[in-house]
Design brief:
The chain has helices at residues 28-38, 144-156; strands at 2-5, 12-15, 21-25, 53-59, 63-67, 72-75, 83-87, 92-97, 103-107, 119-121. With 174 residues, the chain is α+β, with helices and mostly antiparallel strands. The chain has a single domain (2-156), classed as Alpha-Beta Complex (glutathione-dependent formaldehyde- activating enzyme (gfa)), CATH 3.90.1590. The protein has a 7-stranded mixed β-sheet. A 3-stranded antiparallel β-sheet has the order 1-2-5, with no helix packed on it. The longest helix has 13 residues, at 144-156. Bound molecules: zinc ion (2 copies). One zinc ion binds next to loops.
């Protein structure tokens, strides 16, 4: 069992099992969202030194909000789009949730000791010169390995369909 918390400690996610994979996303949306989230009062960045966003992907049915569920608010770049859940007690982004996804992309910044990044995704969106030559494999979008690991995790849930749970928008007061 692993616990991750927001920076002030009021919001806790309890994770069971092991991550599906770890990846750092260079996509335009993650960069744009990270910029907006970093501008929230008291926030600290979720990006790495290269402007990418490191994630730890976890099966959705193995993640539980065990403290502070009421602090969570949804940040979206577009109505109905990918949701980024922010613990508004201290404006800590916690995870990204694709509509219909069977996994949550937990922000690596929330881990005391994040597991090492295994791959880089969406290099087609990376700003020139920002992708380090450090031997971590990357793909223009998602690699076959990335897709296979996600598919394997979905199979392990019995190909369950996950509905996006209701969550107030970030703009709404607590
Ligand atoms: Zn907090
Ligand atoms: Zn992204």
């Amino acid at each position: 069992m692993t616990e991750i918390t927001c920076r002030c400690g009021a919001t806790t996610l309890t994770l069971t099992g092991a991550p599906i994979l770890t990846s750092s996303c260079h996509c335009q949306s993650c960069r744009e969202a990270a910029g907006q989230l970093a501008d929230l009062p008291g926030a600290t960045p979720i990006t790495d030194a290269h402007g990418a966003t490191p994630f730890v992907l976890w099966r959705k049915d193995r993640v539980a909000v065990t403290r502070g569920a009421g602090t969570l608010r949804a940040h979206t770049l577009r109505d109905g789009g990918t949701r980024r859940a922010v613990a508004t007690c201290c404006n800590s982004p916690m995870y990204l949730n694709f509509n219909g996804g069977h996994w949550l992309s937990l922000y690596a910044a929330r881990f005391d000791t994040p597991p090492p990044i295994q791959m880089r995704t969406m290099l087609m969106d990376a700003e020139p010169g920002t992708v380090p030559d450090d031997g971590i494999p990357g793909a223009r979008r998602q690699s076959a390995r990335f897709m296979l690991k996600l598919l394997g995790a979905w199979a392990a849930t019995g190909f369950r369909f996950f509905k996006m749970e209701p969550m107030p928008k970030l703009e709404e007061p607590q």
